[in-house]
Amino acid sequence: MTIDAAKLLDYPFPTSEHSYTARDAMLYALGVGLGSDPTDEAELPYVYERNLTVLPTMAAVIGHPGPWFRDPATGIDWVHVVHGEQSLEIHAPLHPDNPLRCETQVVDVEDKGPGRGALVRWRRRLFDAQTGALVATSDSTLFCRKDGGFGGPVRPKQPATPWPEGSPTASVESEISPRAALIYRLSGDYNPVHADPKIAVEAGFERPILHGLCTFAHATWSVIRELADGDVGALESVQVRFKAPVFPGQRLRTDMWQDGDTVRFRSFTDDGAVMVLDGGQLELRSERRAK
Q1: Are residues 120 and 105 in contact, defined by beta-carbon separation less than 8 angstroms?
Q2: What gap in Å lies between CA 55 and CA 156, rounded to an integer?
Q3: Residue of 136, 179, 221, 282 with fewest CB within 10 Å of its CB?
Q4: Does residue 33 belong to any structural domain of this protein?
């Protein structure tokens, strides 16, 4: 099968309602990697029910439809799909046991050309089910590596935003748990490329890879902890481009450049030899960022 852009843009995601518990929030934080040091009081509020705080990046997985692109009706060769880009805008804090309504839609399909793949951009919006207030907006881009050449128009390449000059404001390095993908998938993304060695090899990887959204959340937390005193309420929005997979058990270093409320960041593995996140940009709320 091949991609039919018009059908993809009309893909029938059902509107759904989701509730998550304090246990779900703590399991998500553990999957991201918090709590590796049980004496770390900065991370304890996210993995302990007393005065529990929810990581805002959990909004990227609440109501996640899972690997919906495995549906043959999409025309996507799902084995060769990777997460290309991710952005998240936080409109209101997350609270356990507060029902959320999730609306999902494909918003754009781009043909990169034969042999160059295709980009499928989709959006999820979370609303407070009781008040109707918008809580979070999550935009994701799938890079469908084997699906180029379906006939879409060629688009001009957008110029890259210049990267900050000079040394980073800060750098944070930490180890990704060897079990990270197996824990993180329990928050809703059951794509077998993150758990099944055979599927991972079929997809072109030497072994199961970490979820892109887990790398995304790990780097976001590193920035917030380092430059906003660990106050997740300071997060307004964050976006990244995925460059290479992270394997559970690797060390991840995030370099960050701060200019007022804007933080640009990149993440690396293999002692800086492999860039795994590029184009990172995080916006802090002025009234809550560290001074």
Answers
A1: no
A2: 37
A3: 179
A4: yes
Q: Which domain holds residue 257?
A: 5-150+173-284
- Domains in the chain, number: 1
Q: Which of 83, 194, 211, 218 is catalytic?
A: 194
pLDDT tens-digit series, residues 28-81: 999 999 999 989 999 999 999 999 999 999 999 998 888 889 899 999 998 888
Find the CATH number of the domain harbouring 41.
3.10.129.10
189 is catalytic: yes
Is residue 212 annotated as a catalytic residue, yes or no? yes
Select which of 189, 211, 218, 255 is catalytic.
Answer: 189
CB 255 within 8 A of CB 268: yes
Residues 126 and 136: beta-carbon distance below 8 Å:
yes
Q: pLDDT digits over 119-164, tens only? A: 999 999 999 999 999 999 999 999 998 889 888 777 777 787 889 9
